[in-house]
Amino acid sequence: MNFDLDAKYLEIQQEARELAQSVEHIACEADASSELHPGMLEALQASNLANLMVPSRYGGRFEEIDPLAICLVREALMATSSHLDSLFALQGIGSFAVTAAGSDAQRSEWLPRIATAEVLPALALTEPVAGSDLKAVVTEIVPGEHGFILNGSKSFISNAGCAAFYVVFAKEGDSFSMVLVPADAEGLSVTPTPELIAPHVLGEVEFSNVLLTDDARLGPAGKGMGLVLSTLSVFRVSVAGAAVGLAQAALEEAVRHTRTREQFGKPLSKLGPVAQMLADSWTEIEMARLLTYRAATMAQSDPAATLPHSSMAKLAASEMASKVVDRCVQMMGRWGLVRESKIGRLYRQARPMRIYEGASEVLRLGIASELTKIVP
Ligand SMILES: Cc1cc2nc3c(=O)[nH]c(=O)nc-3n(C[C@H](O)[C@H](O)[C@H](O)COP(=O)(O)OP(=O)(O)OC[C@H]3O[C@@H](n4cnc5c(N)ncnc54)[C@H](O)[C@@H]3O)c2cc1C
After folding, report:
1. Nearest CA to ligand 1 atom 31
2. With contact defined as beta carbons under 8 Å apart, do 207 and 153 qualify?
3. In this predicted model, what pLDDT tens digit does every residue of 159-206 receive, in sequence order?
4. What's CA 150's distance to the chain center, in Å?
């Protein structure tokens, strides 16, 4: 068993670190904004890292999308900017249904431009009435004269307003389908989502009598839920990568502070309870990182079969990140509370990770259900 990353992954990690470093000076400004930051987009385009999100036959870097490579990039980017991390992650999350089930025409039209980050995608699942319980969606497609008609509202959609297309999950009869809706479709409109504690490019998307032809389908009618699951199988573990990067960045802030600030005649880092918080945090980050890399490696061979491990990694790493960043704020005393400081940003950014792409409680249900099936 080899726990070291091989040369291919070390190279990708290095590229991601260089990208993160190049945007350090605009990270605070971008992370405070719920609108697309042009400097971040330009940096992502220049890095060529978005080509990890598309298979090589459509302009991507590798033959197939590689979950470990994506985890490593998210780990590096999230340590510097959640805005950049999200921009990168969405290139894959928003376009995966096109890769997995798009027609040749849809793939050729969109994927090469996803790979260069010339266009941005969005994945529209959540609705005002449907969050964790996706089967409760009411957005619907019904047959129309030249294809079908889409009506409904999607809520908290990343990249809404700047995406070139929306991959939309909708009810169709008694089952669910996925369709691709270009952003300029007549009847599609976007309004702002309320500002979050950790700003994020989000919007509310309304579809009002949007007319679509059969070419807009992603995969066969009634197979939309399968496409949601395959997207999660590949990308859920990448949230764990981002959470590990966030926790590592928080710990480094706390280390720099506690080894120089003295109280009671000693650096804080040498005071027992502070040393314990540092040690526990480092240990927990290492545990989460190992699980994340393992789950991402497993997801490469059979993403659907290994979804429980991706869920475990996402659960463990996002819960760990919240705990670690909270400790780091504590160790930094009043400086941990400064709103625009790096630690202040990381503290707020850790919180949504336990809610999106599967809330912790919902993940636990899935993990426990799998466990009860496999134990003989
Ligand atoms: C920053 C951000 C970006 C997002 N981007 C997108 C996007 O691009 N596309 C998109 O479609 N959606 C997006 N979302 C929405 C996200 O997917 C939902 O927030 C998520 O699915 C949870 O749904 P909800 O918020 O409606 O919570 P609810 O489903 O209302 O759940 C609330 C809480 O109830 C508990 N709970 C729910 N169900 C269960 C259960 N079965 N058992 C036990 N406890 C349960 C959990 O604690 C959960 O946190 C985004 C959200 C955020 C915060």
Report:
1. 132
2. yes
3. 999 999 999 999 999 999 999 999 999 999 999 999 999 999 999 999
4. 27
Spell out the domains of the chain, with CATH numbers in brackets: 7-115 (1.10.540.10), 121-222 (2.40.110.10), 225-374 (1.20.140.10)
Angle at 321 between CA 317 and CA 323, to 5 degrees: 120
* First-last CA distance in the chain: 26
- Cα separation, 125 vs 325, in Å, equals 30
Name all residues whose Cβ lies below 6 A of ligand 1: 123-126, 131-132, 156-158, 200, 202, 352, 355-356, 359, 361-362, 365
Q: What is the reported pTM?
A: 0.97
Mean pLDDT of the chain: 97
Q: For residue 55, how many other CB atoms are within 10 A of its CB?
A: 18
3 CA to centre of ligand 1 in angstroms: 34
For residue 158, the ligand 1 atom closest to its alpha carbon is: 8
| DSSP code per residue over 90-121 | HHHHTTHHHHHH--HHHHHHHHHHHHTTSS-E
Give yes or no for a contact between 354 and 324, defined as CB atoms under 8 angstroms apart: no
Q: Is the pLDDT score of 146 beyond 90?
A: no
Alpha helix (H) residue ranges in the chain:
7-22, 24-31, 38-47, 67-78, 82-93, 96-101, 104-115, 224-258, 272-301, 307-331, 342-350, 360-374
Please, which residues have CB within 8 angstroms of residue 4's CB and are 6 or more apart in sequence? none
Is a pLDDT exceeding 90 seen at residue 19? yes
Tens digits of per-residue pLDDT, 264-306? 999 999 999 999 999 999 999 999 999 999 999 999 888 888 9
Question: What would you report as the CA-atom Rg of the chain, rounded to the nearest whole angstrom?
Answer: 21
